[in-house]
Amino acid sequence: MPYAELEHKAAGHSGTLADGALVFKPLSEQELAWYRAVGQPEDTANSDEEDSGDVPLWRWMPVFLGTLDEGISQGADSIAAAGQAGATLLTTGETPAELGQTPAVSPPGQPAPTTQRYLVLENLTAGFRSPNVLDVKLGSVLTDSAAPPEKQARLAEVSRSTTSGPLGFRVCGMRIAPNARALACPAEQREPQGDYLLLNKHYGRARTPADVAGAFETYFSHPRLAPARRAQLQERFFQRLQLFYNTLLDSEVRLISASLLFVFEGDPSRWDERGDDDPLLPEELDGGESDDEDEDEDEDSAAIHDAPLSRLALIDFAHSTVTPGQGYDENVLHGVESLMDVFEKMDMASLRDPQ
């Protein structure tokens, strides 16, 4: 299938493409360095962390499969055309020079080609028939010290004027099946998208510490899921947040402007097929590459078939770094603590007043 703009997203910049089980995200060198430092190790069978019951940080992240380098003529609006000319997927340890590539040379009088680079990542919504997604930005500090002063000032104001400051998290947006709560939002905060409704950044920035729990209640108010299944989703995500919090306590990193992505299945038939079984963490996917193309296709099909009913993932690392010896990230921990408080209150409310 041709590459297309990633459909199932709740926030973020344009330019991220998808092709079935894969996502192609415009590459930043800092995010590439992050994935190479923190991403899934080659040998996961002998993971000391998981043997001890701990969940390593990479288990919360999309699987990193490599990078994609493509020569694109100036003015091209899609990587598909360039892909037909021979785009090359690089493994995590290869460089264009090691593959014998040389820079493209334009004929006289033609514009010089530019090179677009992409991170190749697992598509976190692959296998879901009706994914409902929520993007939550973590931390009250939203940019690093290397950013231009005007950007630092602008994002400091965003933090001060939204829940990012007092709570350490902010709802960036959600893309869900329309429900009564979402349809009651002001028109400037919602955007119809086919069978979905996008609650945009204006919706998230309008939340306050007093009413932000309502955003999560809106997210889980799926009209086709039975109340028991909605309650199960709330409980599962609460448990995942607790596990993720413990992971952060053991992680010496600084997650600047990273997000938590919530995804759940809105198609009741998949819940029926799986008997409502929804593991806390998805099965591990192999981050390495195989020389057998048929084997790759079989593995991709199996991975999609085994997509869970819901998952929680950590995404967006363009400003994140590994910081050995500096301890855990208090900026992000505060946000996760606040999220756990919200989910705990939601659980208590549902017990008092089941829907």
From TrEMBL:
Region (Disordered): 272-301
Acidic residues composition-biased segments: 274-301
Root EC class: transferase
Keyword Kinase appears in the UniProt entry: yes
Entry-linked InterPro entries: IPK, IPK_sf
UniProt entry keywords in alphabetical sequence: Kinase, Transferase
Biological processes annotated in GO: inositol phosphate biosynthetic process; phosphatidylinositol phosphate biosynthetic process
EC number(s) from the headed UniProt entry: 2.7.-.-
Pfam families the record matches: IPK
Molecular functions per Gene Ontology: inositol-1,4,5,6-tetrakisphosphate 3-kinase activity; inositol-1,4,5-trisphosphate 3-kinase activity
GO cellular component, one term: nucleus
Keyword Kinase among UniProt keywords: yes
Family: Belongs to the inositol phosphokinase (IPK) family.
Protein name: Kinase
Organism: Maudiozyma humilis
